C-alpha cells in the first residue's frame, strides 16, 4: 500500500472498485478449480459474489424474520430433547414447590423440569419464545414495508403470495407452540379454539372433534400440535422461505429512488464481502437481542399460570400479540345468534373468529392483483414507491393497520380498564365504535397527509429550502433567499415515479350517441370508482396544477460518465 | 416465664401450638394493658369502654354515610351484623372512611390507628353478630401448609378476578379486583370471610380455615417466588410481552439496521 | 427507459468487480491512524465476544439450577454471557464492514428477466409438440381414464382423516349430571350442604368427586352454585322449583366459547366471563346483560336432602351446556 492510494482505497487497503485485482495465490485458483471441475461453480460464483444489494434499513426487516427463524430452529431443537408432548396425567414432584404434588399433564411437567432443572433450559425456552414474537413482528413489519413501497408489483406478485402464506403459517405455528406447555393460559386458548371450531356452520362439530380427537380436551391434541409445530409447519416454512429467498435473489432486490438509481439497475454494495458482512453482523445482532431479552425479561412464566384445568381461569387471559387481535374481535362483537329449522349459527363467534379474519386475509393475499386490475398497471417495477407518492395505497395500508390495532387493543381491554381506570364495558363500546369509525378516517387522513407531503416535496424540489435569510434587492424589494437542493436529495424524492393523473376516459357518450363501455359494465364502473378513490395522485383541485408543476427534466438518475461527473449534473432549472 | 416480655411468649406459644392463644392473649393483654398491632382480636382495656370509644369514633367519621346507628343510608349500607372482621378489613386497608363516592372504595393509607380500628370493630360487632377479627393463629398459614392445594383453590376461586399471580383485574361497572401484592395475611383472610364490596363470601363451611390458610400460603409463596426469567413485566402475561417485543426488540434491531444501512461518512 | 449507457466506462476492462459509480472516501480512508483506531475497536469487540463465550462455559459449570431461585441465577449469567458473546461479534463485524471495508457505491444492471422471444416461441412449440406426441388431445379415452385415476387418488388422504376423531354424537348434549347427583365441591370433594354458603357466596361443584370424572366430563360438568340475597331470585316460568332457598345452580361453561365463568360479583349478582366479558344476570335466570354470549347459562335444578342437608340435582341439564353449534337447535 503506497501513499498515493490513500484517497482511493478502503481503509483496509482494498480498493473495492475492481482495479485492485492483484495476483491470485495459486492455492486459491487450485481449490476453486478442484470444485469447479466437479460442480461447475466458478461461473456461479463470479455472478453471485458480485451481486449488488441495495442498502437501506427497511430492507433488513425481512432479515430479522429470517434470522429469528434460524434461532427458532436452533433453540427449538434443544427444547425437543426435554419436552414430552403427552397429556398423560402425572403428579409433579419437581423443584418448584408451589406446584409440588399437583396432578398435571406430562407436557406441563416436562416444561417445568426443563425450566427449573436443566441447565440453560429456561434460557432456551425464553429465547424460543422471544424469537417467536420477533419472528412474527418482523414478518408484519416486513410485509408493511413491501406494501407501502409497492414492492409487491410486477414482477414480484408471486413472492407476495409466498410471503403472505409464510405469515399465515407463522401465526399457526406460533399458536401451536404457545399451546404446547398445556398451562392454564394456553389451555384456555385451546378451549376458545374448540368453541370457535364448533361455531362453523354445518361442519363445525366435525371439525372440532376431528381436531381434538373427540370432546374437549381429550388426550390427542398436544401430541398432534407437537407434530404440527416441530415438523409439518417448520417444514413448510423452510421450503417456502427458500423459495422466497431464491425468487428475491433471482429477481434482484428493489431499491429506493435516488441519483444513479433506475428501474434497470441496482446500486449498493457487492454481496462479497460487504453485504455478506453486513448481513452476518445483523444475524448476530438479532441473535444477541433475542438472547439478552431472554436473559433479562421473563416470558411466558407457565409455573405462575399453573397446569390447565377446565374448571379454572384467570383474569387477564390473553394470547400472544399476533393472535390477540382475534381475541379482541371476539370480545367486542355483539351477540347475535340465529336458530333456523333446528340449526344454530352463532354469528357472535363465527363472524369475528372465522369470517372477518378470512375476509381480511383474503384481501391481503389478493391485493397485488386487485391493484393491478384497478390501475391497469402492467409495467415491471424495480424502484420502490415512496409511500407519500401513492396516497391511496398508503391510506389503505394505514386503514388495515388500524383495524388490526383496534382489535388487538380490544383483546387487552380488561388490562386497559384496570390500568387506565376506564370502566370495562366502556372500553368495549369504545372499541366497537372505533372499529367502525377510525379505519375510514385513518384512510382519509393518511391520504391527505401524503398529498401534503407530495406537494411539499414538489415545492422544495422547485424552489429549494427556505433559508430564513431576507435580502433587499437594489430596487428596494425584499425577498427570501432560497437554497437549492442538492441533486441527490431531489432524486431521492422519486418525483418522476409519482403516480400520473388517472388516464382520461373517453366521454361517456361519443359523438354518435353510443355510450362508452365503462358507463355500462358494472365491473368497469367499480373499477373506475376504485381507481378514482384509491389511486388518484392528488386532490382534484390540485391535479391540474400538479400537471404543470412536474419538473420536466431528468432528475431520474442519469449516470455521469468518467471524470465528467461534476459537470454531468443535470440541470434542475430546465 | 411470667416475667418474660409478651412478644417472646407469643412466639413461643405459636411454636408450641396455638389452640388457646387467643384467650391467653386476651388475659395477658388485659393484665398488662398492652395492645400491639398484631394481637388481632384481643383488645386493650375495658370492653365497654372500647365500645364507647368506637362509638365516638363512629359518630365522628362514619355516621354521616352509614347512619347514626349504623343502620345504613342511601349512600352506604347498614353495618349491623357485618361483624368486626369486615370493619378491620375495610378500615385497616384504608378503604374506609371513603374519600369520595365512587364505583368502589380504593385502598389507601389507613386513617386510624390499630387501637382505634379495634374500637370501631368492637362497636360494630356490638350491634349484631358477625365474623370476629380472626386471631393470628387463624390466619397465619402453618409451615406445613398445603401450598399446591392452596394454589388449586386459588385458581378455582380467586384468579378469575385477581389474576394468576394476584395482580388484580377488571370487573364490571368500573370496579376492579385489587392486587394482592400488599395485602397482609389477616386482610386476605378477612376478605374471604366477609366478602368486601362485590367479592363473594367464602364461609368457613365452604373453605375451612385451614384451606383459607393454604390459599394465603400460596399467595405468599407466589409473591415470594423470584422471577427466574428476569424482569417480570408486571406479571401481566402476553400483553406486556408483546409490547416489549415491539418496543425493545424490534426498536433495537431497527436502530442496528439503520446503522448498517446508513450512508458512510465522507472525508472533509 | 435505460439511461445507464455510461456504465461500463469508468471501470477498466480487466476489472472483475461490479462497477463503482461513487467512490466514497471516509475519514479513515484518508487517514491511516483513524483506520488503525477502527481496527483496534473491531478487534476489541471480538475479544469481548470471546470473553463472553468463556463466561458462558463458566456459568454453565458454575450454576446448577434447581428451582426458581437458582434457575434465575443460571438464566441471568448464561444469557448475559451469551448475549455479550453475540453482541461483541455483531458489533465487531458491522464495525469492520462500516469502517474498514470499501464503502464505494457499486452498480449492477438488471438484465430483464424475460427470455428472448426466440426461446419463448421455441418453448411453446416444444410444449405443444410434446403434448401431441403423448396423443392426449386425440385419445380422449386415455385423457378421461387418466383424469379419473389421478382424481380418485386425491380421496384416500381425505378418507384417511376420518379416524382423527369420533363422529359427534351425543357428547355435546350430555353431561354426567343426572337426577340425584350430589353437588361435590370441585376442589375439596365434599358434598355441599345447605348452610355451607353464606349469602353472597358461590362455589364450583361437580356431579362426582373429581377423580371419578374423565377430563372430558370435567370440562363440561362444572357448575356454579350461588347463594343469592334472600328474595332476589326471579325464577323463569316453569323453573319455580329449580332453586332451593335462594341457592341457584348454573353451568359454569360460558355459552360463548366455553371459558369457565368464575368471576362472580356479589353486589350485582352477576357472573362475568374473564375471557370475553360476557355477563350473566344470575337472579334473572342468568340472562345475558353484556358481551358476546348470546344465550342464558343452562340451569341445573337443585334441591336439598332434608336428612343430610346435602344439595342434589333434581334432574340433569335440559339443554346442551357450553358454546353453540350447528346441530344444537
Q: Would you summarize the structure shown here?
A:
The complex is a heterotrimer of chains A (574), B (268) and C (329). Chain A is mainly alpha-helical and 574 residues long.
Please characterize this protein's 3D structure.
- The complex is a heterotrimer of chains A (574), B (268) and C (329).
- Chain A contains 19 helices and eight strands.
- Chain A is mainly alpha-helical and 574 residues long.
- In chain A, α6 runs antiparallel to α13.
- Chain A is 57% helix and 6% strand.
- The two termini of chain A are 45 Å apart.
- Chain A has a domain at 450-549.
- Chain B has helices at residues 6-16, 21-32, 47-61, 63-66, 83-92, 114-127, 136-139, 147-157, 159-162, 185-194, 209-224, 238-261; strands spanning 169-170, 176-177.
- Among the domains of chain B are: 35-133, Cytochrome c-like domain (Cytochrome Bc1 Complex, Chain D, domain 2); 138-225, Cytochrome c-like domain (Cytochrome Bc1 Complex, Chain D, domain 2, Orthogonal Bundle), CATH 1.10.760.10.
- A two-stranded antiparallel ribbon of chain B has the order 1-2.
- The longest helix of chain B has 24 residues, at 238-261.
- Chain B has 268 residues and is mostly helical.
- The relative contact order of chain B is 0.10.
- The radius of gyration of chain B is 24 Å and the shape is elongated.
- Chain C has a five-stranded antiparallel β-sheet, covered by helices on one side. Chain C has a four-stranded antiparallel β-sheet with strand order 7-8-9-10, with no helix packed on it. In chain C, strands 1-2 form a two-stranded antiparallel ribbon.
- Chain C is an alpha+beta fold and 329 residues long.
- The longest helix of chain C is centred in the first third of the chain and has 33 residues, at 68-100.
- Mean pLDDT of chain C is 92; it is low at 1-13.
- The radius of gyration of chain C is 38 Å and the shape is flat.
- Classes of the chains: A mainly alpha (574), B mainly alpha (268), C alpha+beta (329).
- Chains in contact: A-B, A-C, B-C.
- Chains A and C meet through α4, α5, α7, α8 and β4 of A and β1, α1, α2, α3 and β2 of C.
